[in-house]
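From the shared-data thread, chain only:
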Amino acid sequence: MEKLRIIFMGTPEFAVGILDTIIKNNYEVVGVITAADKPAGRGQKLKYSAVKEYALENNLTLLQPTNLKDERFLEELKSLQANLQIVVAFRMLPKVVWEMPALGTFNLHASLLPNYRGAAPINWAIINGETKTGVTTFFIDDKIDTGAMILNSEIAIDATENAGQLHDRLMDLGKETVIETLKLIEIGNVTTTIQKDSPDIKTAYKLNKENCKIDWTKSAIEINNLIRGLSPYPSAWCFFSDKDEEWNVKIYESKIIIEEHSHEIGSLICTKKEMKIAVEKGYIQIMNLQFPGKKKMNTHELLNGIIFSDTAKVH
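Structure, as tokens:
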């Protein structure tokens, strides 16, 4: 059995759960690599990544390179004498980095590869109405999420869960899958499966303002899936307009009402406690939203302080 000396690379909360599990299973983590600090908020104070905070709390050796090909960084990396690297939600590595350890570099990706390669696999699985997803460990190669697969684990996607809830379940599944992968590497018993490309592979594109905007001409199911798939972050959004005012509104939770109606698509229909938007063959009932300059709130809280006219619309 080979004694593992691990370098862990990751940035967000998802990666912290995996790193914590590796340490709690008594594996030796000789170094942690995470993103450089970024200014955030009104005061533009430097914000640490979730992985950096964890590394500092647990006295782990920490590196924050801005350039992964920088000679000084590569020397520091070599000096840690790791024989394995693990990557969870980090960034693309140059060959000189992923080839360095004798046992290779493996990645945990939050999808059933080869589907949903890319930056936002959890979000797109829900947006596209998938009924199952999972996690995959694979050895990194010179493209994004294309390397030889080691293990994958599958879970069902609940019809009402959002991206935040699925994120937490996939993190738990990822913890188990990474530990199983480490056990196989430790005893030298890894077998891999080459990913097969095909034209119908789905991609987890980077999320941006445009692909997070709600298109109210789509079906109720597609709109509801977009809202679930972007909640709580970065959130689906649209414009509300009433009389001469317009607001950029984030929507976090909705329900589908299938019902024939004669309202124009995008009409906003409100009672004192409920808000629904006319779509094809029904309505999207808005449960939780955020107006600019206000906190996130339930619809009935918002309707306590604002009255919409009969001509209010969304677009």
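The longest helix spans residues 163-186.
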